[in-house]
Hints:
CATH architecture of the domain at 40-110 in chain B: Orthogonal Bundle
Helix content of chain B: 40-55%
Strand content of chain B: under 5%
Structural class of chain B: mainly alpha
Number of strands of chain B: 2
Oligomer: heterodimer
CATH class of the domain at 107-271 in chain A: Alpha Beta
Structural class of chain A: mainly beta
Distance between the termini of chain A: 20 Å
CATH class of the domain at 40-110 in chain B: Mainly Alpha
Number of helices of chain B: 5
Number of helices of chain A: 5
Strand content of chain A: 25-35%
Number of strands of chain A: 26
Strand order of the largest sheet of chain A: 1-2-3-4-5
CATH superfamily of the domain at 107-271 in chain A: Oxidoreductase, molybdopterin-binding domain
Order of helices and strands of chain B: HEEHHHH
Helix content of chain A: 10-25%
CATH topology of the domain at 107-271 in chain A: Sulfite Oxidase, Chain A, domain 2
Amino acid sequence: MADHGVFDRMITRRRLLATTAAAGAALLRPAWAQEMVHLPLPGGPGARQITTAFPQKGPMILQRTRPPLLETPFEVFDRGVFTPNDQFYVRWHWALIPTDIDTAKFTLTVRGHVNQALSLSLNDILRGLPSVELPAVNQCSGNSRGFFQPRVPGGEWANGAMGNALWTGVRLKDVLDKAGVKPGAVQVRFKGLEEPVVADAPPFMKSLDIDHARDGEVMIAYAMNGEQLPLVNGFPLRLVVPGWYATYWVKMLNDIEVLDQPDVNYWTKVAYTIPDTPFASIKPGEMDVKMIPINRMVPRSFVTNIAPGSKVNAASPVTLRGIAFGGDCGVARVDFSIDRGQSWHQTQLGRDEGKYGFRQWQSLLTLPRPGEYNILVRCTNSSGVMQPDTANWNPAGFMRNVIESTGIVAA
Amino acid sequence: MFRNLLPIVVVLAVATMPLVARAATPLQLQSVKIDLPDSDKMFPAGPGSDAINNNCLACHSAGMVLNQPALSKQAWTVEVNKMIKNYRAPIAPEDVGAIVDYLTALKGAK
């Protein structure tokens, strides 16, 4: 087993990032040879093209060309806790996306219920405010939707609509303070440069409560993994809302509006709502459920080094390795089971790069006898929330976080 | 096998650091001009394919629709109406039935 950077205590973050980037570049060659991937979605269809047609992006699973929906090939997650920019997943709502961004002309507006409306240049943001950095997982609300049963309409993702990056930027709080939030402000609404093709369609906007917006963690990022963002990941500025689903991480952010009334725009009030139940789960067909805006993420964990259907030697130890994240807090532990959850074995966690990021985990696995096994992995986060052993269900296909099962054969 | 237990020491050290650390020198952002690929894929020919090709491809390419699972006619009706009501798809009322029937024929639940 080759050394893995994240488990090597001597590696620096900068070297780690360089390693991640090199791994991304190395993937180009083999992936060009293979044009299609099969996602194991129940009932199908699972065939997807691997595309390299998107500028600044490497091989990606093509879910939709326009507006782009690009999924990260799952093997990328075995290379370390930081997802390379060129294979970080992509999800847009509307088709009119600017493809020509002049950094000298771009401005971020801060307006609404403030003392002093602002129009900030990129220079104002990069040089005029304290710079901060934070590793955080960005995960689509509908990541893994394709595994819902019964199936639901939407982007039919496997597990690759997520990624972890080291985000660099400025605190939203500092930007709001510069404008001076007036008493009585209740929410802050964010809009980017994407626009709908149909003029009267609702522009994509998301809002956060004022206290959340000013918590000092929500960021306006101008870099991911030490580089400027790829255009399709939101260049030049993207909101970073640590621990919350990616719908809030507005891309190409250019407008911040402080509101003195709750936001009732479609994308906050109607879209991206979940049942107000544990794990946002209801029975298929259940009606009259209270719905609330999707919010904090929940814990997940995955095996990354053994593909489903792999064969290993019985009665001989192999390395089992993967990633986990706590959702809205850190990872406390990751356990695995080879006996359908009757007994669990604690894995060893890799280096902690930050509580909102991916955490690698690793263990030795010995399958005692020849036969078929399901390897279950279960993350418990630092708030004590554990992945559930039954899958949640809701009509939008949001917030899947059931314990994952990887079928392998010992021979 | 893990070579040592030192990562645990590192974990403890990191846990005592402030969550949001000050970053080093800000980088210089470079202007970007790219072309995004488009898709010329059409919906497969069949009854109603003109209606779906003419009404739906202005806002999104066909691929994601073709990747949908089998759904009931009722579910397809909900989807098409969502496109019209929520996303303001300018679909002529007389085409709605043809689009729902096309999707149900192509992607209908048994």
